[in-house]
Amino acid sequence: MRPFTTHTGIAAPLDLANVDTDMIIPKQFLKSIKRTGFGKNLFDELRYEDEGQPDQECTGRPLRKDFVLNQDRYQGTSVLLARNNFGCGSSREHAPWALDDFGIRSVIAPSFADIFYNNCFKNGLLPIVLKEEEVDQLFKEVEANEGYELTVDLANQKVKTPSGMEFEFEVDAFRKHCLLNGLDDIGLTLQESDSIKAYEEKRMKQAPWLFEARSL
Amino acid sequence: MAGKTLYDKLWDSHLVQQRNDGSALIYIDLQLLHEVTSPQAFEGLRLHNRKPWRLTSSLATPDHNVPTTVEERKSGVNGIADPVSKIQVTTLDDNCDEFGITEFKMTDARQGIVHVVGPEQGATLPGMTVVCGDSHTSTHGAFGALAHGIGTSEVEHVLATQCLVQKKMRNMLVRVDGELAPYVTAKDVVLAIIGEIGTAGGTGYAIEFGGSAIQSLSMEGRMTVCNMAIEAGARVGLIAVDDTTINYVKDRPYAPKAEHWDMAVESWKDLVSDSDAEFDEVVVLKAEDIKPQVTWGTSPEMVIAIDQPIPRPEDQDDQTKREGYARAWKYMGLEGKSTLADITLDRVFIGSCTNSRIEDLRAAAEVVKGRKVADTLKQAIVVPGSGLVKAQAEQEGLDKIFTAAGLEWREPGCSMCLAMNADKLGHGEHCASTSNRNFEGRQGFGGRTHLVSPAMAAAAAIAGHFVDVNELVKH
């Protein structure tokens, strides 16, 4: 996995609560068997006027001018500011894949849905929870200043604004460690194979039916 | 010291390793797989030259984008008209064959929606940990199993290690006390709960559903309730094990047999929260207050009882809510409408992992029997949750009741719940749907979804608009 240490980039405000993963990447694009190529269909229904199809070339499609990521000043956005309960609904990891493929490295919101939050960390994407009033302030600043950039510093757990303000955020120690070092957590878990085998041996005695071969 | 909740017990019995940093390694007993969220996981195994840790812990079936018309289903995978869908289903078949994972393929009578198939086969058992790359895995919590949806990276992690890295959730109890009125179903109960606590109300929690109204539900009703825990933000929904649970599981193909059965039943009796267990949050609803529910907007929390007026944006005090309501009003085309009955329906969908089991189909059939769907309706489809549900329904003659009333009888799959196959809404069309999500575009580009119970969907099909099923059956 690509490590995440410090990132500075253009921020864009997506002023909508309860953004669900169907909105982030609609179902017709989930038919792909790959992890890449979802960026052009990120927020497809918010972003384009027409209905998108899988494998479609998107450059000529009519854009919704009012959608934030379509506006000139937000081209090249890599930090997304969002509202409460971002990423709710379906567990599709295609949502962080689409954000990542589009070029988003970090999403900042007052709250996230659990599964989406977890999926981000598996893909080198950093979801950051800030207080509601802090997110409000960032929304105001980004809207008032064209070219507004935010710096996300994972090691020090801080979001820094151009004016030098800093907002601290929480992140689980294990997730932080994996993200900073770009660690594959399957490899890490496999280092604990002996513990897993010991658990299985113990459990097999308590609940042998869980280990029966499923005969058809 | 306070006693343990059911969630605490399930967590403790699956704890492989508690790490110093607060994370923990949790053992997974059953992983269900389908075609949409597994291809990249299998690809990951291949890239790293890894093998599944334990083959007997996985069960696969294609469901999300299989076609549901009889014609398209005749020749299995080869009959899928959409080439992209076909590749995805073929990929699941190939991966299961390559890695040696049991799969109910498209032509197998046991194929169906993963969350219908697992319990039906007795693959889902009390006391298990169950995961699937699908958020509605919470369904299996109805069996007193710790079950939740995961992303594709975690699907790969479980395949490779049989474990997940987790952090313990908080405990919430949602109690529904009293007796439900006629035609008020499990679906109405869970929609009322979501209306009460909101779509983010359960974020970070494992919700245990309890109280006499929950206890009185059948296993299928309990699955409907737990299925939608995720719509309240909770990855996990749980219901304590009782005789209803044990009787349902007994004699299912994958259920333990002989002495293992006795041993299992003995251990399952402990799968209840201790009487002195402490919950971080408790929510109480009165069953008598719950009426048939209908969603009016684009989030499951935008829900009202059938006799309530549609809430207006301008009446909301909270600014975020006001804006959200205004957006939903526009999307749903509610201008000029004040009650649910004012909405003319275009389609009706009875199916999905929430409501496609035999009791759901019986409830819908009872309402449409001897009646005809409204002329104004473009389509009404009934999609059973599995091949076995379909066979059972046909044995009971439910298919004949549906087709006589003008509803289409289909082959099993997820179908119009998320419209990954050909079953979808047209732009601006309103649908009474027994599924679980009314998000923008969920059932088709520009489609307008209203979530209801099977009985309410059936009544809506007859009337052409929403109506209290109690009123309809009187006539």
Explain this structure to me?
The complex is a heterodimer of chains A (216) and B (475). Chain A has one domain: Alpha-Beta Barrel (Aconitase, domain 4). Helix content of chain A is 31%, strand content 15%. Chain A contains eight helices and seven strands, in the order βααβαβαβαβββααα. Chain A has helices spanning 21-24, 44-47, 94-102, 114-121, 132-144, 173-181, 185-190, 193-206; strands at residues 6-13, 77-81, 106-109, 126-129, 149-153, 158-160, 166-168. Chain A has a seven-stranded mixed beta sheet with strand order 4-3-2-1-5-6-7. Chain B has 475 residues and is an alpha/beta fold. Chain B has three domains: 6-166, Aconitase, domain 3 (2-Layer Sandwich), CATH 3.30.499.10; 169-242 and 249-289, Aconitase, Domain 2 (3-Layer(aba) Sandwich), CATH 3.40.1060.10; 294-473, Aconitase, domain 3 (2-Layer Sandwich), CATH 3.30.499.10. Helix content of chain B is 33%, strand content 16%. Chain B is built from 17 helices and 19 strands. A five-stranded parallel beta sheet of chain B has the order 5-4-3-6-7, sandwiched between helices. A five-stranded parallel beta sheet of chain B has the order 17-16-15-18-19. In chain B, a hairpin with a 7-residue loop joins β13 (293-295) and β14 (303-305). In chain B, α2 (39-47) crosses α6 (152-161). Chain B is globular, with a radius of gyration of 22 Å. The model of chain B has no long low-confidence stretch (mean pLDDT 97). The chains are: A alpha/beta (216), B alpha/beta (475). Chains A and B meet through α4, α6, α7 and α8 of A and α2, α4, α6, α11 and α12 of B.
